C-alpha cells in the first residue's frame, strides 16, 4: 500500500517526502531524543535500531548468564569425618603428632592448608589435589614413599587400615575441593 511520510524537523518546520513506501505491518515510532534528528525507529519483523542497521527480532542483546553447577560435593563434617576419623583415630583426640581430631570442626581447621610436620613442603590436605595431600598418603600407607618421604606409619596407627571405599571417599572429597 503506497504511503506518503510526513515528518517534522527538529527546528519545528514541516517537511513532506515525495517518496512512496510499501509498509508491512510494523510499529513505527518517530524519535527526537538521543538519536539523529529525523530518524525513525521501526519495530516488527525487520527492526531498524540505527541507520542502516537491522536486528533480527528473534535475537537478544542480553548477556548469556547461564551457569552450570555440579552440586554441593562431599562434606568433611557429614560425609568424610564420620567414616574416616570417628572411631578410627583415637590417638588424635589427644593431639598425637601435633594433630588434634576432637570433632569435625577442629579437625577440619587442623588439616586444610596446614603444613605437614612429617613431610616438608606438603600440606596435610591440599584442597583439589589428592596427590599433594599428606593425610591421604598416611591412610593409604604411602607416606614414607616419594614424593612425601615422611613418616611411613600408616594411619590409623595400631588399627586396621581403612577399607578401599573409605579411602576413595577421602580422595574424592579432596579432589572435589575439600569442603567443610
TrEMBL record:
Amino acid composition bias (Low complexity), ranges on this chain: 1-52
UniProt region (Disordered), positions on chain: 1-73
Listed name of the protein: Cytochrome c domain-containing protein
Amino acid at each position: 500500500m503506497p504511503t506518503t511520510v510526513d515528518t517534522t524537523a527538529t527546528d519545528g518546520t514541516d517537511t513532506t517526502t515525495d517518496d512512496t513506501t510499501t509498509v508491512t505491518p510494523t510499529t513505527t515510532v518517530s524519535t527526537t531524543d538521543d538519536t539523529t534528528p529525523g530518524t525513525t525507529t521501526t519495530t516488527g519483523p525487520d527492526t531498524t535500531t540505527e541507520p542502516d542497521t537491522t536486528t533480527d527480532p528473534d535475537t537478544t542483546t542480553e548477556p548469556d548468564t547461564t551457569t552450570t553447577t555440579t552440586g554441593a560435593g562431599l562434606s568433611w563434617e557429614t560425609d568424610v569425618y564420620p567414616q574416616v576419623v570417628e572411631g578410627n583415630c583415637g590417638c588424635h583426640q589427644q593431639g598425637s603428632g601435633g594433630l588434634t581430631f576432637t570433632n569435625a570442626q577442629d579437625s577440619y581447621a587442623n588439616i586444610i592448608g596446614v603444613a605437614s610436620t612429617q613431610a616438608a613442603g606438603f600440606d596435610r590436605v591440599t584442597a583439589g589435589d589428592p596427590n599433594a595431600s599428606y593425610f591421604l598418603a598416611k591412610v593409604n600407607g604411602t607416606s614414607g614413599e616419594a614424593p612425601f618421604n615422611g613418616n611411613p606409619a600408616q594411619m590409623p596407627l595400631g588399627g586396621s587400615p581403612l577399607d578401599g571405599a573409605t579411602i576413595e571417599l577421602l580422595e574424592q572429597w579432596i579432589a572435589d575441593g575439600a569442603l567443610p
